[in-house]
Amino acid sequence: MAGKSSASNGKRGRSAITGRFVKQATVKRHPKTTTNESIGKGGRKK
Asked: Taking a C-beta distance cutoff of 8 angstroms, is the pair 24, 6 a contact?
């Protein structure tokens, strides 16, 4: 499946320089220039 890299832990990595999503391995290698974002359930409340 496309887009199913390692988002199973509820977090995804993002580069602070480019703004693009990166793998968790990249986040571990470059902790100063990357960050983890938590993925919330996107349901709206009415």
From this structure: yes
